[in-house]
Amino acid sequence: MTASAANPSSRVAARNARVLRCTDICREHVRIEAELDGFPASAPGQFLQIQCHDSDDPAARLIEWTDMPRTGSAGGVASADETAWLRRPFSIADRRDAPDGRTQLEVISRAIGPGTRWLSKLRTGDTLNLTGPLGSGFRIAEVNRPMVLVGGGVGIPPLLYLARALAARGAADVTCIFGATTRDLLPVPLRGEPTSDSTPTPCVELPGGAPYPTLVTTDDGSIGMRGYTTQALSTWAATRAAAESTLVCACGPDGMLRAIARLTRELRMACQLCIEKPMACGLGTCLSCVTRIRDGRADGGWRWALACTEGPVFERDALLEYAS
């Protein structure tokens, strides 16, 4: 994963994948592993658009837009019978390539609406239709520097994939900070009990056997440190002699990302943010995922950018929404 590997290939596949496993990893999250042929090169931070209904579903018929009332789900539109019509975006949580050209992909889904509930019921041998890889991922030009991977809830998956990629490149000084509201909503497998103080330990099973120590935080203190990922990052930085050389890569809820942006700016750390936006198409067509970025060539010094094509990973200081 070089500096240009934020989007290592312009190729996008629209394929059927075979589900290998759909495993409960905590109260509301499942890990879906699927296999397909000839999947293009990808990078951590890129994502998939996944069809969340059966391809041969008899409900997949021509209906009027007015017959498709909006649900409370953040992902888009569902019909009265809870068929999720729009694809849902999911960060790639891991990728494994076999010598025979087959690729295994993982995503982590939290069942909160009709689309994700459908995903949680997948079983071995089922078909999963997906499009990807999409977007631009993390840009890591230099691995010989301290790095901290900060993820909150369903923002953790792209950082798992990033941990694998960094380990493959020989990055040594990497620490993970993963947060959740409570113990049974932490969507990662554990190797051991996380510490309740600020000591990172290899307590999380990271893809590819990445050996990086991890701090776990929960809002209620039911596992790991009591508090937020920002508190863990601040505590970690206080133990480092040259924290200013650190690169922070973060993904999570908008409030967490805003707090991480403020803190890393105060600590003079470089920071890349993988933002979360509603994405109906993931291809730059629907314009539902716009965000304002700095651009000295544009009138007023800023312009609209699409999180699905120029992002979802941006440099912190490019994002006007996270400027203060």
What would you call the shape? globular
**Could you estimate the helical fraction of the residues in percent?**
10-25%
Structure annotation, total helices: 4
How much strand content do the residues show?
A: 25-35%
Structure characteristics:
seven-stranded mixed β-sheet; Rossmann fold; 29% strand; 16 strands; Elongation Factor Tu (Ef-tu), domain 3; alpha/beta; 3 domains; 324 residues; Dihydroorotate dehydrogenase B (pyrk subunit), domain 3; single chain
Topology:
Layout: E1 13-24, E2 29-37, E3 47-50, E4 88-91, E5 94-97, E6 102-110, H1 114-120, E7 127-134, E8 147-152, H2 157-168, E9 174-180, E10 214-218, E11 225-226, H3 229-238, E12 247-251, H4 254-266, E13 270-274, E14 290-294, E15 302-306, E16 313-315
Provide an overview of this structure.
This protein is of the alpha/beta class and 324 residues long. The chain folds into 3 domains: 3-55 and 65-134, Elongation Factor Tu (Ef-tu), domain 3, CATH 2.40.30; 147-276, Rossmann fold; 278-324, Dihydroorotate dehydrogenase B (pyrk subunit), domain 3 (Ribbon), CATH 2.10.240. Helices cover 13% and strands 29% of the residues. It is built from 4 helices and 16 strands.
What's a concise summary of this model?
The chain is of the alpha/beta class and 324 residues long. Helices cover 13% and strands 29% of the residues.
